[in-house]
Amino acid sequence: MSETRSAARWTGLLAIGTLIGLVVAAAGIFPFRQIIAQERAVDLAEAQLAAIQAENVRLEREIEALQTPQEIERLAREQFGLVQPGEVGYVVVVPPGSTPAEPPPEPTLDRPEERPWWRDVWDFLTGRDLIGDG
Predict the structure, then answer these.
(1) Which string of DSSP letters, residue by residue, matches 17-49?
(2) Among candidates 119, 121, 118, 130, which has minimal Cα distance to 35?
(3) Are 6 and 98 in contact (CB under 8 A)?
(4) Burial of 104 (0-12, 13-18, 19+ CB in 10 A)
(5) Distance between CA atoms of 134 and 83, rounded to whole angstroms?
(6) Is 9 helix (H, G, I), strand (E, B) or coil?
(7) How far is CA 22 from CA 12, 17, 54, in A?
(8) End-to-end CA distance of the chain, in Å?
(9) Which spans in the chain are helix H?
């Protein structure tokens, strides 16, 4: 009788210990998720900032190029069909009702991306589900 009481006691203690372990693990996972999600948000914001800064540099170079007479002449010829005195300009006219030939679009897969269940669990544990990819 004493052995069954001792085994029941150990089983109860094991169940309580397991429950306490799960509560401690859950209490540690949620702050961990939020910390990782915040770090990911900062990384995404830094990447966006770097992309915007690169775009600003490109636009500044384009502005500088637009200030030169050669670029102004190139744009005038391309966009407005202007020519210098003594030059002959040609215009290509597409007949009405005809469309210019374009290559067919590349085929795409209409199947949505299939994700394994463990990827969703991992995203939950690491906080990736809190922050999108930007």
Answers:
(1) HHHHHHHHHHHHHHHHHHHHHHHHHHHHHHHHH
(2) 130
(3) no
(4) exposed
(5) 46
(6) helix
(7) 15, 9, 47
(8) 64
(9) 2-66, 69-80, 117-126
Q: Distance between CA 126 and CA 30 in Å, rounded?
A: 9
d(CA 116, CA 101) in angstroms, rounded, equals 43
**Alpha-carbon distance values, 91 to 15, 76, 85, 88 (Å):** 86, 14, 17, 10
3-class SS at 75?
helix
Supply the pTM of this predicted model. Answer: 0.47
- Read off the amino acid at residue 128: R
pLDDT in tens, 52-90: 999 999 999 999 988 999 998 998 888 888 888 998 888
- Whether 81 and 89 have beta carbons less than 8 Å apart is answered as yes
